[in-house]
Amino acid sequence: MWIMVNDFLNSAVQRIHKEIGRSYQTRVNLEADNRDIDREVLADRLSREPLTRKALDDACRYWIENGKWPMMDSEAGLWISDRLGEAYLLAGWLHHNGFRNDSKTENELLDFFLVECWEPVGLRKTQARLVS
Fold it and tell me: Which of 2, 25, 68, 106 is least buried, going by the fewest C-beta atoms within 10 A?
């Protein structure tokens, strides 16, 4: 007898994947006038990230619960795009390599990848772009 096990990690990965396309299109539109983003601009943006982190955490949690994003400025939109990209890479890599977690719901996993993993993984990878 075949028993179907819920694969909430795969559901979370697919939900992020759906959102990432919209996120990247928004990012392209926001950055269209500033294609010469350099280390100085990134460093400046990174210096402000801790000031917006809680609001961005809350925005991610709002999306997780409601399926839509709260109103935000363009810089917050760029950070959300960064978070979605990093969450997709990490969650997708784990799923591809056999990781499963039947004890967490899809929303709990989304919170883990978009909020809990942001500072120790995603933000650190973004900061590493400044290292020459």
Answer: 2
Separation of CA 55 from chain center: 14
Instruction: Please list the pLDDT of the chain residue by residue as tens digits (132 residues).
Output: 444 457 888 899 999 988 887 776 776 666 655 545 578 888 999 999 999 999 999 999 999 999 999 999 999 999 999 999 999 999 999 999 999 888 999 999 999 999 999 999 999 999 998 886
Helix ranges (DSSP H) in the chain = 8-31, 39-66, 74-96, 106-111, 124-128
Return the domain boundaries, the chain: 37-128
Q: Is the dihedral of CA 57, 18, 125, 102 positive or negative?
A: positive
C-alpha–C-alpha distance, residues 56 and 131, integer Å: 25
Can you tell me the distance from the alpha carbon of 50 to that of 31, in angstroms, rounded to the nearest whole number? 21
> Which amino acid, one-letter code, is at 47?
S
The structure's pTM equals 0.80
